[in-house]
């Protein structure tokens, strides 16, 4: 899952970024409204966290722009303004949720995950593929022998492949989802991560297929 943070407070933005990355999420941080709006026009993150008072372009106008072009990306508004009228203004602009500063990081993470679950593929709290059962709310994966204990990056990779099951997803797309757009990672990092996850899915009736030069696809093993 990939999160966009549009926030000009560097310390706060880095704190949010580090906390989300600790959860195995890919994060892009943009520090001003103009660049943030441009990023959202060009990219397709799973959730956008947008501050209201931004240099260049304010957060509410970014949200309005998103909705006017028909983009359904879930948006969480961050602001120091907590009056009811101000909350209503943010929601009417098109935001899905509203969090007033200061806030607990655990609450922000929970709200981000709740927003991400609104995507069509995750409407059901439980997804079954082969002999696997994935529970999106608890982020747990069960196999034929019980729970599969996956490190956060492997779990994030599985979620990324599950969201696109039956479709080939490129290494670049996986990298963007897990680490954020433009992240500098070792060229073999994705391949090694896929290899480790593939071994742990052995015997589950689920395969990670490799399309050489194109990417990877999660698929059920044929009888």
From TrEMBL:
<keyword id="KW-0805">Transcription regulation</keyword>
<dbReference type="Pfam" id="PF00072">
    <property type="entry name" value="Response_reg"/>
</dbReference>
<dbReference type="InterPro" id="IPR011006">
    <property type="entry name" value="CheY-like_superfamily"/>
</dbReference>
<dbReference type="InterPro" id="IPR001789">
    <property type="entry name" value="Sig_transdc_resp-reg_receiver"/>
</dbReference>
<feature type="modified residue" description="4-aspartylphosphate">
    <location>
        <position position="51"/>
    </location>
</feature>
<feature type="DNA-binding region" description="OmpR/PhoB-type">
    <location>
        <begin position="124"/>
        <end position="220"/>
    </location>
</feature>
<dbReference type="GO" id="GO:0000976">
    <property type="term" value="F:transcription cis-regulatory region binding"/>
</dbReference>
<dbReference type="GO" id="GO:0005829">
    <property type="term" value="C:cytosol"/>
</dbReference>
<dbReference type="GO" id="GO:0006355">
    <property type="term" value="P:regulation of DNA-templated transcription"/>
</dbReference>
<dbReference type="InterPro" id="IPR036388">
    <property type="entry name" value="WH-like_DNA-bd_sf"/>
</dbReference>
<dbReference type="GO" id="GO:0000156">
    <property type="term" value="F:phosphorelay response regulator activity"/>
</dbReference>
<dbReference type="InterPro" id="IPR039420">
    <property type="entry name" value="WalR-like"/>
</dbReference>
<feature type="domain" description="Response regulatory">
    <location>
        <begin position="2"/>
        <end position="116"/>
    </location>
</feature>
<feature type="domain" description="OmpR/PhoB-type">
    <location>
        <begin position="124"/>
        <end position="220"/>
    </location>
</feature>
<dbReference type="InterPro" id="IPR001867">
    <property type="entry name" value="OmpR/PhoB-type_DNA-bd"/>
</dbReference>
<keyword id="KW-0238">DNA-binding</keyword>
<protein>
    <submittedName>
        <fullName>Two-component system, OmpR family, response regulator</fullName>
    </submittedName>
</protein>
<keyword id="KW-0804">Transcription</keyword>
<keyword id="KW-0902">Two-component regulatory system</keyword>
<dbReference type="Pfam" id="PF00486">
    <property type="entry name" value="Trans_reg_C"/>
</dbReference>
<dbReference type="GO" id="GO:0032993">
    <property type="term" value="C:protein-DNA complex"/>
</dbReference>
<keyword id="KW-0597">Phosphoprotein</keyword>
């Amino acid at each position: 899952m990939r999160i966009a943070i549009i926030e000009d407070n560097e310390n706060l933005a880095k704190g949010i970024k580090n906390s989300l990355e600790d959860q195995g999420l890919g994060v892009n941080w943009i520090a001003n409204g103009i660049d943030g709006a441009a990023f959202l026009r060009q990219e397709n993150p799973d959730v956008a966290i947008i501050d209201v008072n931004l240099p260049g372009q304010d957060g509410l106008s970014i949200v309005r722009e998103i909705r006017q072009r028909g983009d359904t990306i879930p948006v969480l508004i961050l602001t120091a303004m907590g009056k009811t009228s101000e909350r209503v203004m943010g929601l009417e602009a098109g935001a899905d949720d509203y969090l007033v500063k200061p806030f607990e990081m655990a609450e922000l993470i929970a709200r981000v995950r709740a927003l991400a679950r609104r995507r069509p593929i995750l409407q059901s709290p439980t997804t079954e593929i082969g002999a696997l059962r994935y529970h999106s709310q608890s982020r747990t994966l069960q196999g034929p022998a019980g729970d599969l204990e996956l490190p956060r990056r492997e779990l994030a990779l599985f979620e990324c492949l599950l969201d696109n099951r039956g479709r080939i997803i490129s290494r670049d797309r996986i990298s963007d989802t897990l680490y954020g757009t433009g992240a500098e990672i070792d060229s073999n990092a994705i391949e090694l991560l896929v290899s480790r996850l593939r071994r742990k899915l052995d015997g589950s009736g689920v395969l990670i297929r490799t399309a050489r030069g194109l990417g990877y696809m999660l698929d059920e093993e044929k009888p």
